[in-house]
Amino acid sequence: MSTHTEKHLSEKDAVTTSVLPEDHLKDLNAVEDVILAEQSYSEEEYKKLRWRFDLVLMPIMMLTYGLQFADKVSLSSGVVFGLKTDTNLKGDEYSLLTVYFYSAYLAGQIPMSFVFQRLPIGRALGVTVILWGIVVIGLGLCHNYLQLSMCRVLLGWMECSVTPGFLLIVASWYKRSEATLRSCMLFAMNAFLGGCFNVIIYAIAKKAAEDGGIAGWRAINFFLGSLTVFAGILVLVFVGIPNDVWWLSKQRKTMAHSRIISNGTGDAGRHPWDWRQVKESLVDPQYWFIVLFNLTATIPNGVLTTFTALVYTGFGFTPLQSILYQLPANAIGFCVIIASAVAVTYFPKSRFPLAITWTLLEMIVFLYVGLAKDASKWQLWAAFSFNLVLSCATFLIWAILPLNSAGRTKKSFTGASALIAYCAGNMIGSQTMRASDAPRYLKGLTANAIVMAINAVILLSWWIYLMRENKKRDQAYETSGLTLEERDYQNKIAGETDITDRQNPHFRYLC
């Protein structure tokens, strides 16, 4: 180990070798080389490199993420184009298809996180996306409830790693100040590509109805499945962390790694599973805020992904109109997500206030649509066109999940737990809209508005906790005698040697 490293590790309140995992002590020389390399390149060189992986990684991940949402709402669109009739669905069997999807999505989180931590993450994601596309094609071949149920289970398992995997990849390439905008660019594809696919779905279903050939809902799944297989091939070939991709030279891989070490969270490289970090997560207050937030934020999401088209038809629109008239909602959702991400990029402290604001706005929308008795269908349509604003709060918070947790296993376990809560919330949400409550679903919409109020309280409490935690750490730093340079250096050492955020006193939370 060099003299420089020994000096910093011996300082008061430093991340000492007694805290470092024993199997990582041998890596300290390599870690210091990466830290020193950070100063070897100019800001202009870093900017050019960032543009390169912006142009390679982001379009592929944006397409893939948008397809994930399109696959979910294809069930909602398909039901107005004959899916229920063609497969003889009865009673609540349709809503149970969403439960099967999220049950498998939930069950796959920990096992897939365990596997992805031992494999090149880009390759593993590519294979799962290809398999997911094949399952979507299979959905178009189903003829009964059993076949649909089996495909929905497989689809949930294949899709479960996409969100946590992409968030880890973003955190492995981008600085903390850059990550929120890139993550939200992925998430905004739910709205943007959702709108584009609604137009395509409308055209496919309309032509199928006019020609009297293949059913519209089958054509929708064949189209989306084929496009997903193509996207999976692109992910397999191009996506990964800096050290794994083929399209960067060795020097540029070092540059890409060194520019994000100030995050203090490491990258999504392969690491052995560390059960100590799992135990730490379970006693970390932030972990439980994450779980509770994801549970309450996604109960309404279970309504939107499954029942949106049916809510529009409940207003009095035809099945084809219910697809077209969702386009303004997609446009509003896209603009709000991107605008919020830009705001957070320039005003980092606006993240939680914005998330709370959008949650309360959506609560008002659900209350109005659920309780307004004399409103016209156009008034209800105008209000419900803001339904995707709800997802903005979730996406602003999801963007910081891998940036507010350090330690490879802790990040994986926390991300998996967040998605487990996400699944549970979506399953609960899909069951709040009962067939007996159709066509307006007044009880379900009102109940979900109450859940949003609870979610806003959780966000406020979490925000206060993170601010207090940062304040305590700042006070400890002021009395430690360390210089700012020494603190930053030790934070980088901790991040590169798999130290968790709670073990590292120099880590600061984004809030």
From TrEMBL:
<feature type="transmembrane region" description="Helical">
    <location>
        <begin position="327"/>
        <end position="347"/>
    </location>
</feature>
<feature type="transmembrane region" description="Helical">
    <location>
        <begin position="152"/>
        <end position="174"/>
    </location>
</feature>
<keyword id="KW-0813">Transport</keyword>
<feature type="transmembrane region" description="Helical">
    <location>
        <begin position="217"/>
        <end position="241"/>
    </location>
</feature>
<keyword id="KW-0812">Transmembrane</keyword>
<dbReference type="GO" id="GO:0016020">
    <property type="term" value="C:membrane"/>
</dbReference>
<feature type="transmembrane region" description="Helical">
    <location>
        <begin position="413"/>
        <end position="433"/>
    </location>
</feature>
<dbReference type="InterPro" id="IPR036259">
    <property type="entry name" value="MFS_trans_sf"/>
</dbReference>
<protein>
    <recommendedName>
        <fullName>Major facilitator superfamily (MFS) profile domain-containing protein</fullName>
    </recommendedName>
</protein>
<feature type="transmembrane region" description="Helical">
    <location>
        <begin position="124"/>
        <end position="146"/>
    </location>
</feature>
<feature type="transmembrane region" description="Helical">
    <location>
        <begin position="445"/>
        <end position="465"/>
    </location>
</feature>
<keyword id="KW-0472">Membrane</keyword>
<dbReference type="InterPro" id="IPR011701">
    <property type="entry name" value="MFS"/>
</dbReference>
<feature type="transmembrane region" description="Helical">
    <location>
        <begin position="186"/>
        <end position="205"/>
    </location>
</feature>
<feature type="transmembrane region" description="Helical">
    <location>
        <begin position="99"/>
        <end position="117"/>
    </location>
</feature>
<feature type="transmembrane region" description="Helical">
    <location>
        <begin position="378"/>
        <end position="401"/>
    </location>
</feature>
<feature type="transmembrane region" description="Helical">
    <location>
        <begin position="354"/>
        <end position="372"/>
    </location>
</feature>
<keyword id="KW-1133">Transmembrane helix</keyword>
<dbReference type="GO" id="GO:0022857">
    <property type="term" value="F:transmembrane transporter activity"/>
</dbReference>
<feature type="transmembrane region" description="Helical">
    <location>
        <begin position="287"/>
        <end position="315"/>
    </location>
</feature>
<dbReference type="Pfam" id="PF07690">
    <property type="entry name" value="MFS_1"/>
</dbReference>
<feature type="transmembrane region" description="Helical">
    <location>
        <begin position="51"/>
        <end position="70"/>
    </location>
</feature>
